[in-house]
Amino acid sequence: MTGRDDRLDDYRDKRNLVDSPEPADTGDPGQGNRFVIQKHRASTLHYDFRLEVDGVLKSWAVPKGPSTDPSERRLAVPTEDHPLDYIDFEGVIPEGAYGAGEVLVWDTGVYENETSDREGNRVGMAEAIESGHVSFHVEGTKIEGGYSLIRTGSGDDERWLLVKKDDEHADARRNPTSTEPESVLTDRGLDEIDSEAG
Ligand code: MN
Fold first, then answer.
1. 40 C-alpha to center of ligand 1: Å?
2. What spacing in Å lies between the alpha carbon of 121 and ligand 1's midpoint?
3. Tens of pLDDT along 132-145?
4. For residue 34, is pLDDT > 50?
5. How many Å lie between the centroid of ligand 1 and the Cα of residue 42?
6. How big, in percent rounded to 5, are the helix, strand and coil portions of the chain?
7. How far from 122 is each of 11, 169, 188, CA to CA, in Å?
8. Are 105 and 88 in contact (CB under 8 A)?
9. Burial of 179 (0-12, 13-18, 19+ CB in 10 A)
10. What pLDDT is recorded for position 1?
11. Which pLDDT band, with edges at 50, 70 and 90, does 198 fall under?
């Protein structure tokens, strides 16, 4: 079993945490089932979808963000595991640093793993991610209900799709990334975060 420290090597290797306000890993034990979606205006705007799994934040970059429409399949590109301390990070990653640009917490809450195998047995989150098919229920402020993350392709072509399940929270008319663009924690938009960073 790989320890959390090893799993966060990529996170540390990509950053100089002296220059960036991003958090270091403080060994926060977490509560086990939180998620966060961070809106990140880097070289291109995207939404970082992160699920707390075994002491780290498993992460995917979703260019268009999550949809509430089950017919929309949103591309999700896996990125390095992040420390749990990252879950409430908002701020500006300085120019020249990895991921330079503003970050805000677009939505956060808890999730429940609903993944099962073909025989109907429950599958743990780490194993589900390994197998490339994760099914879970989120309770956020802006998004709610069932979602799936499905891996397509492998190696350098590894891509995932984030898809809303067709449940009572599905709504093809909602478009929360457009109608609710601000931080769920501080109500700030990206420009405010930028100007307040000084
Ligand atoms: Mn990002």
1. 5
2. 34
3. 999 999 999 999 99
4. yes
5. 7
6. 20, 40, 45
7. 30, 23, 39
8. yes
9. exposed
10. 47
11. low
Selection from 130, 143, 173, 132 nearest residue 47 by Cα: 143
CA 161 to centroid of ligand 1, rounded, Å: 17
Distance 113 CA to ligand 1 centre (A): 24
In whole angstroms, give the CA distance from residue 68 to residue 26: 34
Average pLDDT over residues 71-98: 96
Question: What stretches of 151-198 show up as alpha helix (H) in DSSP?
Answer: 176-179, 190-196
Round the CA-based radius of gyration of the chain to a whole number and report it.
Answer: 16
Instruction: Tell me the sheet residues that pair with 79.
Output: 59
Q: Separation of 45 CA from ligand 1 center, angstroms?
A: 8
Which two structure tokens, joined as six digits, stand for 104?
Answer: 């805000």
